[in-house]
Amino acid sequence: MPDSSDNDLGAAAFDLRVRARPGRGATRTTLAQVAALAGVSVSTASLAFSGSGPVSDATRQRVLTAAERLHYAGPDPRGRSLRQGRSGIIGVVMEERVLAAFRDPIWIALLDGIAQETTADGRGLLLLTDVGESAMAMESASMDGVVLLGCSTRIARSIDILRRRATPTVALGGPEFPGVLTISLDDRSASEVAARHLADLGHRDVAIVALPLDGDVGALGPPAPGSPSAERGPLTDDRERAGTVQVSIDRLRGVRAVFPDSTGVVAAGSYVDEGMIAGHALLDDPDRRPTAIVAQSDLLAAGVIKAATELGLDVPGDLSVVGYDGIALDRIIPHDLTTMVQPAAEQGRAAGRAVLDLLEGGEPAPVRFTSSFHRGATTAAPRR
Amino acid sequence: MPDSSDNDLGAAAFDLRVRARPGRGATRTTLAQVAALAGVSVSTASLAFSGSGPVSDATRQRVLTAAERLHYAGPDPRGRSLRQGRSGIIGVVMEERVLAAFRDPIWIALLDGIAQETTADGRGLLLLTDVGESAMAMESASMDGVVLLGCSTRIARSIDILRRRATPTVALGGPEFPGVLTISLDDRSASEVAARHLADLGHRDVAIVALPLDGDVGALGPPAPGSPSAERGPLTDDRERAGTVQVSIDRLRGVRAVFPDSTGVVAAGSYVDEGMIAGHALLDDPDRRPTAIVAQSDLLAAGVIKAATELGLDVPGDLSVVGYDGIALDRIIPHDLTTMVQPAAEQGRAAGRAVLDLLEGGEPAPVRFTSSFHRGATTAAPRR
DNA sequence: GACCACTATCGAATCGTTTCGACTACCGTG
DNA sequence: CACGGTAGTCGAAACGATTCGATAGTGGTC
Fold first, then answer.
1. pLDDT surpassing 80 at residue B379
2. pLDDT for res B81
């Protein structure tokens, strides 16, 4: 029994090939043709479709059946968006590849939040990834509004174009850009809370595992293949000073407020593997092991814990670990991680709302979110 | 030292608020104005920007400086796309929310593959998620081509619109749609390979953990909140017959070819948690434990292994487990999972290439990918 | 010196829709 | 019966670019 009975797509299956060929074959049917067949003017036909304006039921019906007979697909978005000056598209700009960007659940949650707010009534999300120096995609895409997701100052040129087009823009998880509304997080003070928690427990010898401090990436993510920077290595004063990634810097400062002289390493991205590498770098030598480690993301913390476990260390007995983000880690490590929980989806929603508000002429204020401390089972007083 | 020295965004920071207000304030500058200031015709100005056609260097320069003086942002994509009949946008349609869709790494890999191929020269990816009965977003978005990512027959109406618009369309990880090019996977025969591997090891009592068989979701993902279906529960003949999700059905058939009478449970989505629930359902009763379990995804397999571990069972000593997908699981469970590895990113790339090919009038053939068997350390001969 | 080919530029048409103002009936009211 | 109001319809003007065909100018060749 064929299962194609509940739709009538079969009839013109081969049409696709024929009509897709540009400039050849039947031109697509237009509102004018529908109007002609229905015996009304184009303007009336338009009203019949859009629903705005007075149209008699009889006329509307006539237009609709005419459209059906001609296989009219509805008003062409291109014509509509030119006339109306908007396209119903919200852009999401990221500097990384899809795969890299979504390896950290935090980014997925942010995007999901944006989608929740912006995706209603026929709007779509235009994903502009791997946006580098060439701003081509940003120039040639018609977007009503834009959310910059973890973008660095390297896209300043693209932002300039957005400004010239007067496109409402919101930055999420990045530095502040002039003229761009910022949705921010209390990275610095929240990190200070985490650090103070360790201090209160009695820790003095605390090491840091930092997210990338500069380079090719936004806040998180691996270096694009073949590109420089985002190198892993020890956390030196020089690197700290030269840092360009706001998140990493802020979280670092928070810890420094409590442990000014703590040493550490810089990871090449927010990944479990990177955390393991960092963990080994800090823990392999038994003589210079810290009693606690502050990781700048939960994924890094998970890696550190895995490294510690490999070395036979007990967490939190031999080593306390705190993270940042508050993603569900129970699938990665069996521990209940002590961490600073950030409201990821809520931030995405705020960004989405802000863009829509700007679109309607509102003047939304910048929003600053706060992370909340979650005391898990990976921190305890140092042994001895 | 201020860090805003390398861009000149500061000047018009407040412009955004003023000019974003529609209908109010300065209208956006147009190519005509640029042409006027440069003292050339509009057509010449257009040529100066697009680069196609002969323009003297002097003229081009004049146009460009005029544009700069007026803060012209470049040709408006709306006008361009109306005239040219294309927008540079490739749509990716999914029936789930972002968060749900991207919880399984396999979907991220697929999307990444699509992005790799389609995202070159100024193209962008329009993410249409949570596309339900209302096809609004699909009707009102101007897309040059579309990739259906794990869509069910529920979107037949939307596909009809695409066909009427003659929009090149490719289906990935879904059923076949008439008139739509399909990129497929050898789910059935690959599952048979996995099952035969267990049979060869001597297993006779094999249970199945199936992906959702029907309902509100595409191949994977949780039910939309408040919606029916995608229920978890025992795998009955009735449910098996009523299944609508192609992937699950095919993988089931493959196993059935080797173990016709094996029992099993249906999970509510491709998640570790669901795998754990399923695992407990199958393993909690010591008297009716299978010696091996075939899970229809790696995430489900990971959950099953976690459940087994919780019950004190050794994998593969007491229980053999095989999965499907070949995602990097080393961050979730310590085991090297025996599984069927599918070329996820490669499938995405194939879909992307196919859409572009269709766009240029080509006639790409359907592609069928094959999964390869990976013998890990989670399968062994049954004890006794 | 006439003619051709070629370059640089321009005017006008076109893409498909929405929207604004005007125009016709028609209805009810004074 | 004259008149204001309204519902329904229509024509024409945007929207902002690209592209086609035509028109000058320029230099070279026979």
1. yes
2. 96
